[in-house]
Amino acid sequence: MLIIKNLHAEVEEKQILKGINLEVKAGEVHAIMGPNGSGKSSLASVLAGRESYQVTQGEVKFHGKDLLDMSPEDRAREGLFLAFQYPIEIPGVSNVNFLKTALAEIRQYRGLPPLEAKEFLKLSREKQKLVEFDAQLVNRSLNEGFSGGEKKRNEIFQLAMLEPSLAILDETDSGLDIDALRIVSQGVNKLRSKDNAFIIITHYQRLLEYIVPDFVHVLYNGRIVKSGTKDLALELEEKGYDWLKEEAREKAESI
Amino acid sequence: MGNDNEIIDNIANKEYEFGFVTDIEMDILPAGLNEDTIRYISEKKKEPEWLLEWRLKGFQAFRKQKLPEWQNFTLPSIDFQKISYYAAPRNKKKYNSLDEVDPELLATFEKLGIPLSEQKALAGVAVDAVFDSISVATTYKEKLKELGIIFCSFGEAVQEHPELVKKYVGSVVPYSDNIFAALNAAVFSDGSFVYIPKGVRCPMELSTYFRINTENTGQFERTLIIADEGSYVSYLEGCTAPMRDENQLHAAVVELIAMGNAEIKYSTVQNWYPGDKDGKGGIYNFVTKRGICKGDNAKISWTQVETGSAITWKYPSVILQGDNSTGEFYSVAVTRNKQIADTGTKMHHIGRNTRSRIISKGISAGEGQNSYRGLVQIGPKADEARNFTQCDSLLIGDRCGAHTFPYIESKNNSATVEHEATTSKIGEDQIFYLNARGIDSEKAVALIINGYVREVLNQLPMEFAVEAQKLLSITLEGSVG
Amino acid sequence: MNSPSEVTLYDEVINGFEKLANQASSDETSDLRRIRKQAFENFRQSGFPTIRNEDWKYTNLTRFLKDEYALNVPNLPVPTRLIDTARIADFDCYTIALVNGVWDKTLGSTLPQGVELLPMAEAKQDPAFAEWFTQNHNDRFFTALNTALFADGLFIRVKAAALPDKPLHIIHAYTAGTNLMVQPRHIWLVNERAELSIVESIVSEKGQTHIWVNSLTEIVMHRDAKLDHTTIQSAPANVRLVNHTTVRQKKQSLYNNYTFTLPGADLVRNDLQARLEEDHTETHLYGLYLAADRQLVDNHTLVDHQKPNCFSNELYKGVLLEQSTGVFNGKVYVHQDAQKTNAFQQNNNLVIGKKATIDSKPELEIYADDVKCSHGSTVGQFSEEALFYLRARGIGEAAAKALLINAFAFDVTEKIKHAAVETHINRLIGQHIPVTQ
Predict the structure, then answer these.
(1) Phi, psi values for residue C322, rounded to 5°
(2) Residue B129: inside a domain, yes or no?
(3) Domain limits at B386?
(4) How much is the ipTM here?
(5) How far away is chain B from the Cα of C291, in angstroms, using its nearest Cα?
(6) In sequence order, what are the beta bridge partners of B365?
(7) Chains that touch A (3 or more CB pairs under 8 A)
(8) Domain-located, residue B481
(9) Cβ neighbours of C317 in A, within 8 Å
(10) Would A244 be classed as within a structural domain?
(11) pLDDT digits (tens, 9 = 90+) for C269-327
(12) Do C363 and B419 touch (CB under 8 A)?
């Protein structure tokens, strides 16, 4: 589904990603862990098409197409979804109007007619229930006045509505209390299927107790320095990141 | 606040500290303005022909110009024929060392707290002092010379560096710019000249002190500062004048030129005689100050603390021509009694990615009127230009006024401009809070005002910041009460 | 002032005054005739404003003054279709229509209870006319011109304590076969404790001929009166609108103004002045201008705090598309007597067009100390973050920008008290976006 080869990227002329290689297949859940500043969120931004990031080398194929060549909206329409670390508030844009527009545009791209108002309402109720998101959305502006937890749950609700094939969760667990974390994870687990895939970016192992990954990768200094199964996450939890940093440094020195 | 009246009375009764007259023999040109006046000045100063020509052009422009009408005060009628355009201490024109300076004159500067004699000088401040129209002494000249820095009186620069003067004089403020700039071009008597060579960081603050002493004189000095590529200079200007019943005109021109990667910091503490509590006398401070960021990444920063003058009317400006260049304006203006201030800045964004920041703090007391007037202009090529303006006004007493007139003109769809302004009375609950902690109202107000102006005073070099703070508390002493 | 010989319109006015004065004055009191004469004299001296006048610094009229305009309103068939375009779907209201400033009763004349309407031509006899018709001898420019030449308009009197059941929709339709300058003049009196909501729509036919509307409305709000006043300006490019409104507020009155200017009329100048003549009044001024093409939209407002304990709040938002120019000049003036004033003012602009211009001049002039006043002005673009968020959800760039323009306007549109009017405005906005640069 997603093939990343030797991806290099910079922001404000500073090299952030220094050769990422990663393959994600349908049905898989990948966790990307790493210390602060290792490039985790940058990877998410590059994949979603944030303009301030310049790709300097490498390629990314998504369903066989060149992802890097697409506008952010086309990436979304192709089935890529980024759950933002900091979902933005947009006063004056209502949640409902926003979702309707997004859904209609994605459907149009796929040659589908927009949903009737009734169908939309039904779908939105179903999905709200599925992800246990009970915030009143009508007459409220996008994320405006939402608590940190509500914003994150709204991201998962949007994920449920838009049904992407690949979802990237950028530190969705940060700032969540244990109940919210459980609700968000359960939502994600319900949405998991053999046809879709997830990339879960997180600093802590905590989230991975709820969403069990198939693979765990450790990102450090712009590169994936270690990959493994969920046991790697436990090891990291126990030993922290320092030993990896040490290992990476030794490796760099030996070269 | 129960003691409002008392405070206001105290402010009103506070007298001007620097109002003494220096008794010294002067060469004074009789009042009057015509071509002969200009020729006389030019000849006295042994100027080259081109400069006389330029002065005469300025005079032509002056005669064509009308007095402006847009200002937020009634412009008093000024009889330009009743002003004497040249006054100089009668003594040898040029001093070879400080020992030759009239002791009375030196005493005057001592009294003003100006470190004129080198041995007593505060470390790191080079001073050029202008007494009425003539530069009387420049300190630390030799030390600066070693670095290739030129710091001298304008007149000296005309004699010794005519190529630089000719190239840059009037290049930022043309003689036709406005009526007072035109008058200055015609009759300017002296002033300061600074040139910082490429890549040199001027190791000390350069400073000029202006003093109007003689009756019926105007002061028309001209300052020209050129910071060549990659250089840095911080320049300070201070002013005082004796107490006199009649108004005196100060129409100076300051031109700053910052080449690529150069930075000029220009600070003013202005304490001209403000007139008495009934508004009698005082200086009309009508000054044109403008800088240009000629090259990329240049920076010009104006800081002003304005406590004096009957009328302060000036807009230190920056032309942001070079890409990524920065303009800053930090101002504290205090008006009390019947003082008027109509001051602010202009930021002309021409180059790409240019930045400007304006912080203005007005304090009005007594019957003082304080206007902020500022222009932020974004040209069609100034992509990604940014401006931030914050303008606050504090009112002490119910007979003063605070006014804000920002002009924002943007012709670029990638520019961002933000202007905010607030006007309010000094906080009674803040004073009460401090009272409740055992601080009397006088100190409370002083504390609050100090906090209020801190953002601006922080921009001043240390010695000046202390002086400015003292000046503010003296000016507002009683508010204070 | 322009040298008179350069300006055709000026000459026309000067030469045509005698004739027009004779037509109108047969039934006028000597007082009114004197006022008109004085106003004419004032206009003769001032002429039309130029950019040398501080209040017209950013609004150059030269290109508009080049055209010739007739000053006599022609007799034309009633433009029913045009009037229908101004109707607001699902808006439960009383509707009346003025054609070229003259009330046409054939187009509906049912009125809310407690509201009395008269054509200005007839109201001149009413004692209230003499009482409230401004006799400002210092008038210059357009207001002086209107006083000198006005022929008709709408006189509204809301009886004391009247609480009409529905709002009043006033449709101003302008139509002419030739270039025309009209000078509608209105006086609206809202008596003590009365409450009314008025929505005005200004429409005109698209065409080659230019119509210059120089309108002047004087509103008097008596003690405890409330007025909600919405103006929707959506006339086409051949129309020039110069619109002066003065509101005089008495004790504890509440005045809300909502001014919407949409793409179209190539010149729009609104002068809105709220004069707070007594204490404890409340004033809200909301404005939204969406300008396109080469349109010039200029909003000048004045909130004149003369007495203590008054509250005013102003929010004007502008979206400048294509090569349009927006001008905002808002003045808050606080007199020495007006202690305990709270006055707030905000102007935000979204500059979209590559060749669009905005000139913003918020002003505070304050002579009292126990006040809380603030203003702010911003010029900016779309938030890149918001745009990215929307695009990352599959919303195309143009649609995302349209959403963000709507969101920007929302702060003003949400203030409208009638849902049908809000929907109507949103629909009008929608017609002019998605965005072209």
Answers:
(1) 50, -125
(2) yes
(3) 4-475
(4) 0.88
(5) 14
(6) B396
(7) C
(8) no
(9) none
(10) no
(11) 999 999 999 999 999 999 999 999 999 999 999 999 999 999 999 999 999 999 999 99
(12) no
